[in-house]
Amino acid sequence: MMDYDQNPFIVIWELTRACQLNCLHCRAEAQYHRDPHELTFQEGKKLIDDIFAMNHPLLVFTGGDPLMRPDLFALAEYAIEKGAGRRAKNTKIIGTSFIKKLSLSGKEQSLKNV
Ligand code: SF4
Q: Helices 41-53 and 72-81 sit at what angle, rounded to 10 degrees?
């Protein structure tokens, strides 16, 4: 039986609290600008290493708006190199160019524009 205290089924990483919207109901308490204490790209890669050193849990990038991080695609590609599958879902600002960029290479994919 899997010990989820040692190997979680899912890891949800709030990449940033930054978001261009300001929804009253926001669970992430989003703000317009990125927090200077966010993980750096190198720290993010180390986190991904640590996550995939466990039993390859489902990794979710969320925020805020993950697209507010210029290194989002680099982090996603790094996670894909580690074995992550790809799914994308967002609100209004996601577009076909984003979908195409994520679907250029790789194995499993389920991309949905909502
Ligand atoms: S992160 Fe989501 S809920 Fe929060 S302000 Fe942005 S769009 Fe709204």
A: 30
